[in-house]
């Protein structure tokens, strides 16, 4: 069953439950759709200036970590976080198992940190980015999930396109 359809746990507040289910849904979709995808598909570039699946997975990890830092850590260096963002889109050729493990660890870690947060802390403003714009923790975490879900949708589409691409290549080459 998809995580968003699961019953709420009685010990978790509805606000936290919604955040947790959003993280769980992203992970569920990525694992389900990429399970049978070959490693070569992760670094296939379907068109110029269209980042591959692997780079998008790296970005989900990096952006989620940065947004979690804004929401959950007391102090951070915004310039260091901006420098890390540059690395997200690098073509590394990492295997699928490594990337999915990193996504799972990142989202699971964020999940644990949300659970540990007192409910009233969700309404506390946190400074975001170099301009230190005050945003409620809940808003940052909601955006983290929206952002991860956005790129998950792109990843699922690219996985489907890879399927058509690889079938077409098999017909042309006879393999």
Description:
The structure is a single chain. This protein has one domain: dinb family like domain (Four Helix Bundle (Hemerythrin (Met), subunit A)). 63% of the residues lie in helices and 5% in strands. It is built from 6 helices and 2 strands; from the N terminus they run H-H-H-H-H-E-E-H. A two-stranded antiparallel ribbon has the order 1-2. Helix 1 packs antiparallel against helix 5 (96-116), helix 1 runs parallel beside helix 6 and helix 3 (53-72) runs antiparallel to helix 6 (137-173). The longest helix has 37 residues, at 137-173.
List keywords for this structure.
single chain, 2 strands, Four Helix Bundle (Hemerythrin (Met), subunit A), globular, about 180 residues, mainly alpha, two-stranded antiparallel ribbon, 6 helices
CATH class: Mainly Alpha
SSE arrangement, N to C: HHHHHEEH
Rg over CA atoms? 18 Å
The CATH superfamily title: dinb family like domain
Indicate the mean pLDDT.
94
Counted beta strands: 2
Number of domains: 1
The helix content, as a percent range, equals 55-70%
Number of helices: 6
**CATH architectural category:** Up-down Bundle
In the sheet with the most strands, the strands line up as 1-2
Q: Which class of secondary structure composition applies to the elements?
A: mainly alpha
The biggest beta sheet reads: 2 strands, antiparallel
State the low-pLDDT regions, or none: none
> Separation of termini?
36 Å
